[in-house]
């Protein structure tokens, strides 16, 4: 809790560049009386002894700090051990636990739960760069690939092989080591990075594809083939696929998790003992609501009737034979394809008859429930013309996503002779960078909704396994974006919210997202509210506010900003 005497110790601090040796003086700062906490727990003192709880919390975490393979993050501890698993894309999962000490009715409770965090794999920098952008096949990276590398590498610490210095990446250069030039004052001439390393270190570089990186203050340029990623770095931004793999890795059965927590608790330090018996609480299963579609009108998700006979029951989410409550009309739309045109174009531009087999965009199969996309849209209640087919723009290699989106919207306007309502975007994978640029172009620049699909999942240029279910799920998202309504609760809202009775009421949801940076970064507040009597239509507002504030400062004006016009959908 404190040092009973003053002691001078010497420690070595590793960081960027050479390790530094520092002298540290340990002094007693304060004496924390645990008796104040005991008085509070007995009801003799109304003021909670936060300092005492904080001190005990530190004591209980003390043992983990001795482990050199342990990474403390806030209240959590993560370990580099045999349970580390790769999740692809140059990332891996470390497992650990988070704990906190809380006063409760029965005394002090030690709250422990398993935790997982994503870390960068300690690997060759070139391998990580190829993981992010794929093989560039003798060419330099495209502008989109360069932006992907910049976002992925900025702030990542690398260790240089030629001098073992550790530096953080500041930016990604334009050219490779054979293209990037600088003025070598010592040699008195301009030379490339490759020429410098051959002259200075007798190192012959070979990679002509990947760009150089600027590290430290930005004045030092390094070739990626001479760098490795330093271990022990957290990875905060994950792709959809990495997130799914992380969830699989971290998932534990309740009984396995309980045994794991017991092992964590079975540690003693500073003479403190923790009761190994876990607290028990009463649990109950909530009654599920019934849903109402256009067809079927009364659907029980638990029983999945009338779908049980088809083997799709017990709460499964299946829309293949469902018609939306209120359909929409899709009279003008286009397709922007960022997937490989060699495989995807035939699926997107030709009918079944033209292609010689089922295509994604139009099958012309007999019957009302054919599996391809336009047929599925119409079957679900989204009225979509079958002639003409929507125009498809294949994204040029060096064009920006925004330009491809603009061309698609213009092609739709010319094809259907009316403004484009929606752009269907075919992505090559689940990468976040291209997705963000597409959404920014549609939402902020063009003001047109977009719906993204992944080529492999949709069977575009790939075998069409599972395409009917995928098409139905995409149709559900598109119907909502086109002002339709997919489903509502079968029971009247008044029966689900007894305090309000027959009077209209609004369901509000609100949250504040805080930045990972310092206090000078703003927080983002968001509010969403129901706009009709069945709570199926929503309006949203987003606002910036002072960082680290949990309370939404401008809530009144955010909600009031919807105004009477937005609330006109209230018809009872």
How far from one another are the termini?
63 Å
| Number of DSSP-assigned strands | 23
Question: What is the averaged pLDDT score?
Answer: 83
Seen as an oligomer or otherwise, the chain set is: single chain
Percent strand equals 15-25%
Supply the CATH superfamily name of the domain at 291-488: Response regulator
Name the CATH architecture of the domain at 291-488: 3-Layer(aba) Sandwich
Provide the CATH topology of the domain at 291-488: Rossmann fold
Family: Belongs to the argonaute family. Ago subfamily.
Pfam family, one: ArgoL1
GO molecular function, one term: RNA binding
Domain Piwi: 422-572
Task: Considering the chains and any ligands shown, give keywords for the structure.
alpha+beta; Rossmann fold; 5-stranded antiparallel beta sheet; disordered C terminus; 27% helix; 572 residues; paz domain; single chain
């Amino acid at each position: 809790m404190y040092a009973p005497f003053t002691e001078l110790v010497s420690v070595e601090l590793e960081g960027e560049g050479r390790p530094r040796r520092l002298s540290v003086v340990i002094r007693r700062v304060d004496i924390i009386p645990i008796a104040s906490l005991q008085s509070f727990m007995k009801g003799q003192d109304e003021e909670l002894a936060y300092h005492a709880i904080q001190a005990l919390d530190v004591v209980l975490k003390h043992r983990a700090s001795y482990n050199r393979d342990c990474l403390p993050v806030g209240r959590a501890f993560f370990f580099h051990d045999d349970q580390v698993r790769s999740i692809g894309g140059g990332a891996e999962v470390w497992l650990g636990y988070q704990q906190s000490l809380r006063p409760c009715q029965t005394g002090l409770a030690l709250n422990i739960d398993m935790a997982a965090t994503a870390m960068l794999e300690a690997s060759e920098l070139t391998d990580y760069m190829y993981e992010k952008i794929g093989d560039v096949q003798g060419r330099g990276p495209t502008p989109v690939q360069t932006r992907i590398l910049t976002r992925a590498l900025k702030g990542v610490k690398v260790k240089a092989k030629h001098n073992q210095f550790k530096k953080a990446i500041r930016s990604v250069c334009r050219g490779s080591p054979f293209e990037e030039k600088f003025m070598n004052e010592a040699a008195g001439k301009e030379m490339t990075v490759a020429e410098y390393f051959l002259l200075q270190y007798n190192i012959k570089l070979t990679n002509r594809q990947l760009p150089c990186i600027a590290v430290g203050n930005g004045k030092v340029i390094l070739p990626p083939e001479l760098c490795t990623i330093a271990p022990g770095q957290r990875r905060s931004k994950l792709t959809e696929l990495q997130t799914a793999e992380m969830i699989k890795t971290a998932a534990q059965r309740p009984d396995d998790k309980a045994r794991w927590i017991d092992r964590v608790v079975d540690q003693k330090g500073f003479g403190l003992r923790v009761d190994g018996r876990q607290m028990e609480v009463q649990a109950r299963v909530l009654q599920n609501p019934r849903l109402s579609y256009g067809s079927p009108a009364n659907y029980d998700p638990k029983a999945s009737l009338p779908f049980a006979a088809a083997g799709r029951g017990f709460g499964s989410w299946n829309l293949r034979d469902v018609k939306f409550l209120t359909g929409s009309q899709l009279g003008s739309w286009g397709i922007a394809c960022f997937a490989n045109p060699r495989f995807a174009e035939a699926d997107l531009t030709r009918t079944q008859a033209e292609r010689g087999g089922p295509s994604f965009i139009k099958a012309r199969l007999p019957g009302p429930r054919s599996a391809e996309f336009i047929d599925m849209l119409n079957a679900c209640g989204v009225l979509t013309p079958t002639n003409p087919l929507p125009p498809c723009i294949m994204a040029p290699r060096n064009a920006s996503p925004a330009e491809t989106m603009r061309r698609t919207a213009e092609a739709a306007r010319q094809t259907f002779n009316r403004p484009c309502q929606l752009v269907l975007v075919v992505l090559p994978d689940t990468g976040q960078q291209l997705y963000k640029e597409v959404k920014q172009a549609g939402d902020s620049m063009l003001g047109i909704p977009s719906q993204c699909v992944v080529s492999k999942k949709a069977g575009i240029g790939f075998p069409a396994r599972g395409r009917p279910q995928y098409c139905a799920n995409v149709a559900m998202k598109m119907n909502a974006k086109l002002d339709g309504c997919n489903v509502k609760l079968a029971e009247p809202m008044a029966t689900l919210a007894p305090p309000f009775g027959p009077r209209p009421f609004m369901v509000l949801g609100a949250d504040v997202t805080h930045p990972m940076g310092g206090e000078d970064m703003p927080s983002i507040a968001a509010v969403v509210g129901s706009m009709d009597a069945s709570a199926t239509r929503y309006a949203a507002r987003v606002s910036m506010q002072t960082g680290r504030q949990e309370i939404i400062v401008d809530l009144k004006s955010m909600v009031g900003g919807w105004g009477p016009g937005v609330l006109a959908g209230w018809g009872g």
